[in-house]
Amino acid sequence: MPISPDRPWWKTGVIYHIYVRSFADSNGDGIGDLPGLIGRLDHFGEDGLAVDAIWLSPIFPSPDTDFGYDIADYCAIDPRYGSLADLDRLIQEAGRRGIRVLLDLAINHTSSRHPWFLESRSAASNPKRDWYVWRPARNGRPPNNWQSVFGGRAWTWDAATRQYYHHLFLPEQPDLNWRNPEVRRALMDVVRFWLDRGVHGFRLDVFNAWYEHPEYPDNPPRLGLRAFDRQAHIHDIDQPEMFEALAELRTILDSHPECMAVGELFGEDPYHAAHYCGDDKLHMVFNFEFTRSPWKPAALLRRVLRWEDALGDSGWPCYVLGNHDLSRIVSRVGRGDPDAHAKLGAALLLTLRGTPFIYYGEEIGMADIRLSRDQILDPPGRRYWPFYEGRDGCRSPMQWDGSTNAGFSTGKPWLPLHPGHPHRNVHCQSRDPASPYSFYRSLLRLRRNSPALLRGDFHPLTIHPRGGLAYLRRAAGEQALIVFNFSNRELGLTFDEPLPEATWRQVLSSASNPSARVLEDRVCLGPLEAAIFLRA
Ligand code: TEU
Ligand code: CA
């Protein structure tokens, strides 16, 4: 196996996703902020998880109709989160610990209160009119059949100027018109602004929706539950102009050392994702498969193999177990001990070939909160309740310790804490060697020092696994064997091919009393156990 010692950090590193609003509040207003986060940086340093980068959900000024994904100023920090000086300090303090900072860029749309939109909306003759997507009515009706992701039409009528404007999300999130060269220039300037300040890159929100078809045709019908899903999105997303824009973005990124971009692909599929990855495109596109897959070895492996196949040599795999839009992993998977599932998830996330993203709280096995109807703040949750409770469940405050409000805030948190916080928090778990947190820490450390886990290939040992999963990561000088038991019973796992003959040294098990053993023709595992073995 060729291994290149000079792999870029984003291929060997681990990225931690922070929903800033819910992470650490310094001033008691119940909303997490940058000074709070700076105060918690040791969580990521050498004595903590030792991750390579943190990605911050949007921290720009925003009316918060969609909690920061409706941005009213791209080159400032929302005062509730802090100031530009706080961000500079964060970059510096994180840098001292070897941690890079990534920002979240939502540049498909702005807030309807962004000065650009206020101007654009002010008159059909305004010079910024064309910065957004304005269309006349069609026979007194919207310009076409496009739907909003969050429900209803993707067009809102502006009575004063007698035209519709386009919004893939809320009416408060009007889509920018990327076809206008001034818009594209302004947005690339935003990218430069943050890179020059020292951030190491971006997570790009719904990037493949930047362009729409220039003639705005109807989308063709398709089977689906919601109106949005009942059409094939061939004209409102994935337009060919994307590639030119990504090439420009990539040139800017490459002119700053070690910078990267990971894209959130709307309606992602591995082959679709692969089109957007490469040297003149994005570094990575999120793979959300584990957030929907059955928690079963065959289903998980099938998804891993499909991405490995699709990405080939030009793309790079990455994995997430959850994010701020989706139910948390332990609330979604399997029966049995949630801590055991949290550790199985960690073992999978951190040993596959690719870049792992940890969503805050996963390291302590945090679960979703349940909200009553009047507690729901998320717009789609309010619209579709009781069929859909929205996305607030996975956004509850980080559970740091046993003090007031779990050490998140001295004031009333913007969302309720999970009721389990007195017993499930970083402080408790850091003293318990059997906790998910301790497992994450050991595994992250192991990974950091293992050529096989950092650079090895991916070689499954069972093609149609049942109950358990086993694969090798093979690099020059070291091989790792990773085995999982997804069932609640003891398991003897046999392989489709013989295990390479060697003495395998167990270096980590997720069980407090490990039963994992490599025998001649199989591996034995305890219930819900994951284990890692190494050989030279
Ligand atoms: O998400 C895009 C997106 O597709 C999700 O909204 C998804 O459809 C939904 O969460 C159902 O699970 C990104 C951001 O991650 C999200 O928070 C924003 O609301 C959205 O873009 C608009 O900016
Ligand atoms: Ca605060």
Which key terms come to mind for this protein?
536 residues; alpha/beta; TIM Barrel; Oligo-1,6-glucosidase, domain 2; Immunoglobulin-like; 3 domains; eight-stranded parallel beta sheet; five-stranded antiparallel beta sheet; 14 helices; 19 strands; 15% strand; globular; binds 1-O-alpha-D-glucopyranosyl-D-fructose; binds calcium ion
Helix-strand layout with pairing:
Blueprint: H1 9-12, E1 15-18, H2 34-39, E2 53-56, H3 84-96, E3 100-105, H4 115-122, E4 134-135, E5 155-158, E6 163-166, H5 181-196, E7 201-204, H6 242-254, E8 260-263, H7 270-275, E9 284-285, H8 297-311, E10 318-320, H9 329-332, H10 338-351, E11 355-359, H11 379-384, H12 426-430, H13 436-448, H14 451-455, E12 459-460, E13 468-475, E14 478-485, E15 491-494, E16 505-509, E17 517-518, E18 522-525, E19 530-535
Parallel strand pairs: 1-2, 1-11, 2-3, 3-7, 7-8, 8-9, 10-11
Antiparallel strand pairs: 4-6, 5-6, 12-13, 13-14, 14-19, 15-18, 16-19, 17-18
Helix pairs in contact: 5-6, 10-13
The structure holds 1-O-alpha-D-glucopyranosyl-D-fructose and calcium ion (CA).
Q: What does this 3D model show about the protein?
A:
The protein is an alpha/beta fold. The chain is about 25% helix and about 15% strand. The protein has helices at about 10, 35-40, 85-95, 115-120, 180-195, 240-255, 270-275, 295-310, 330, 340-350, 380-385, 425-430, 435-450, 450-455, and strands at about 15-20, 55, 100-105, 135, 155-160, 165, 200-205, 260-265, 285, 320, 355-360, 460, 470-475, 480-485, 490-495, 505-510, 515-520, 520-525, 530-535. The chain has an 8-stranded parallel beta sheet. Strand 13 and strand 14 (about 480-485) form a beta hairpin. The longest helix is centred in the middle third of the chain and has 16 residues, at about 180-195. The model has no long low-confidence stretch (mean pLDDT about 95). The site of 1-O-alpha-D-glucopyranosyl-D-fructose (TEU) has 13 residues, from loops.
